[in-house]
Amino acid sequence: MENHLATVREYITSHLGGKTLPDDEDLFAGGHLNSLFAVQIVVWLEKEFGIAVRGGDLTLDNFRSIGAIAAFVEANNAPVG
């Protein structure tokens, strides 16, 4: 999971102007993630990791933090892209 975590962390922080966040920080509550950025993340995950994000996967718990996103990728047995 560490490779997934590093990749997700790099993507998120690059879109936040390089701002460093704890892996467990709530991206929604902290105002770092809005609906448009969430869609961008989903599209990126599908391309980067070769996974299909389905409607049932679109829960706050899967996308609440950098760590949650990395865990979601790991749970889908995605290879590191």
UniProtKB/TrEMBL annotation:
InterPro entries: ACP-like_sf, PP-bd_ACP. PROSITE patterns: CARRIER (PS50075). It comes from the Bacteria. Residues 1-77 form the Carrier domain. SUPFAM superfamilies: ACP-like (SSF47336). Gene3D superfamilies: ACP-like. This is Carrier domain-containing protein. It comes from Amycolatopsis dendrobii.
